[in-house]
Write a structure and sequence with these properties.
Helix content is 83%, strand content 0%. The protein is mainly alpha-helical. The chain starts with 6 loop residues before the first helix and ends with a helix. The model has no long low-confidence stretch (mean pLDDT 93).
């Protein structure tokens, strides 16, 4: 049996993971689009302007770096897309999990601050 020390921490970690995936997906979409625009700027510069050999070399290295950033962003977008789709379809479940997290934290706090008041005099007899 797996011992769970703090249920709220585990539940919070899952909810945090979902939020991180959603944010990573948004950032990846933005980055991919930005890298596409930068690629087009370089390609139009090559097409429409007279460049030196050095300019072509610099543009080539820059284009390589841009394409690598775009690939990384696209991979992140595609990896997080199924999670984001699930989140959109299950907003109520996520809301219920957030509510559950509050309830669990409340119970953990009560257990942590637990005290007992004697109801009989039996403890006085033992001392």
């Amino acid at each position: 049996m797996i011992e769970i020390v703090n249920c709220s921490t585990e539940l919070n970690a899952f909810l945090s993971f979902l939020r991180t995936c959603e944010e990573s997906n948004r950032l990846a979409i933005f980055t991919e689009n930005d890298m596409d625009r930068q690629t087009q700027d370089i390609l139009h510069n090559i097409e429409l302007n007279e460049n030196s050999q050095y300019d072509y070399i610099c543009q080539g290295f820059t284009l390589r770096d841009i394409r690598r950033k775009r690939r990384k962003a696209k991979d992140m977008k595609e990896t997080t897309a199924p999670i984001c789709s699930w989140m959109k379809e299950n907003r109520k479940v996520i809301s219920d999990l957030e509510r559950l997290l509050g309830d669990v934290r409340k119970q953990e706090k009560q257990a942590q601050n637990r005290s007992y008041t004697n109801r009989t005099g039996v403890m006085k007899k033992l001392k």
